[in-house]
Amino acid sequence: MNRKHLGRNERLIIPSTTHLYKACLHTHSTVSDGEYSPEEIKRQYQAFGYSVVAFTDHEMLRRHDELADDSFLPLAGLENAFWSHRYDRHEPEPHDRVHLNLLATRPDVVAQPWLDARQYVRYARRKKGLPELDATPEELAIARQEPHIGEHPDKSRYFDAETVRALVREAEVAGFLVALNHPHWSHLSLSDADAIEGLWALEVYNRDSELTAEPGENDDFYDALLRGGKNPGLCCLATDDTHTSDHIGHGWVNIWADRLDHDSIIAALRAGHFHASTGPEFHEARLADGILSVKTSPCASVRVLDEKGRVEVQEGNAAPDTPRTEWTLVLDHNPSGYVRLVAEDGHGGKAWTNAVAIPCLSA
Questions:
Q1: In a shared domain, residues 174 and 103
Q2: Which DSSP state fits 72?
Q3: Alpha-carbon distances of 66 from 40, 69, 260, rounded to whole Å
Q4: Do 225 and 339 sit in the same domain of this protein?
Q5: What pTM, to 2 d.p., does this model score?
Q6: Are residues 173 and 193 in the same domain?
Q7: pLDDT (tens digit, 9 = 90+) per residue, 224-259?
Q8: How many Å apart are CA 59 and CA 361, to the nearest integer?
Q9: For residue 4, is pLDDT > 50?
Q10: Which of 235, 226, 224 is nearest to 200 (CA)?
């Protein structure tokens, strides 16, 4: 669908191109604490039909450009961790924490914001099965040879709002897109998350969280941060947070892009030209005069939400045991702030569009 073919009052809710690329944007390899090598991660994800994988090992930015070919694009990134003030550094598991995923937007990005030697040693020791919180002078000396590594006092890894905001600002300047990972698993409150500014995206599904946290992730935080107004254009992600075989192939994003190359994929991610999914797919969605026309893979329902909650619609559900692929949703009242769609299939799978601001729809 091309914008020049839209009617005067018609607006796209999702972009549309001839190419759709399946991507996992949160994985861990043997570089940190994952079960599989980068090469094996590529092999397994390609078997599930993925074209893009972001390698986001803990505290370590690593490029895997050697894995790129005509059908596969590796993205470079890392995951940074912060802890609450209640966290005793000698406890093996913190109670509250902030994990941020940083995706490099340029091939020449090598800076690793806020990486410190003790964190590097922690994950190097985990990989070897050694106690994580002990670091010998020799190990620290090796860690300090990492590019752009710095030494920060312990307080720099506690997540008071200004500290986390500072990392987000620093990461953006360095050339990263910044996403907030698994807020429910992290035991974050909505006020904790809302204090963070400048985020590009937020996880609404995380496979590792689904297996280890109660409840798993959902889109409550997404709406809360959209309403807060500090993260305009915030996108939503579904990810595997891959560590083991149990994680692979459960949460992904479908990216609309012109080509499978670094610049095209990053441009699409930056612009929000993708949707998150654990099963269904959105193929088309347009709004005109209060009517949403939506095309999906076979689904049982499509819901419309705005900043005040669900927008009541007509024809938002399929008949029992009769999935549909085309939907005409008549809005009962004008949406407020933004519009986003949630589709559900008959097997527990969901798909989420990114929110589109109402001013953009009415322009």
A1: yes
A2: B
A3: 13, 8, 16
A4: no
A5: 0.89
A6: yes
A7: 999 988 998 999 999 999 999 999 999 999 999 999
A8: 39
A9: no
A10: 235
Q: Locate tokens 């190097």: which residue?
A: 124
244 and 327 inside one domain: no
Mean pLDDT over each residue of the chain, to the nearest integer: 86
Range of the structural domain that residue 312 is part of: 1-18+276-363
User: Are 83 and 183 members of one domain?
Assistant: yes
Using the structure block, give the residue that is written with the tokens 């993205």. 75
> Is residue 12 within a helix (H) or strand (E), and if so which, with residue range?
strand 10-12
Name the domain count of the chain. 2
Cα(159)–Cα(18) distance, rounded to whole angstroms? Answer: 42
User: Greater confidence, 92 or 63?
Assistant: 63
- Residue 8, CB-side half-sphere exposure with 13 Å CA sphere: 0
Bigger pLDDT: 363 vs 175: 175
Task: Give the residue-averaged pLDDT of 115-138.
Answer: 78
Instruction: Tell me the CATH number at 247.
Output: 3.20.20.140
- Specify the range with the lowest mean pLDDT, choosing from 25-34, 210-219, 276-285: 210-219
Using CB atoms within 10 A of its CB, is residue 79 exposed (0-12), middle (13-18) or buried (19+)?
buried
Residue among 149, 118, 116 nearest 134 (CA)? 118
* 214 contact partners, CB below 8 Å, separation of at least 6: none
Which one of 205, 228, 256 terminates a domain? 256
The CATH number of the domain holding residue 284 is: 2.60.40
Residue 162: count of CB within 10 angstroms of its CB: 8
The verdict on 80 and 175 lying in the same domain is: yes
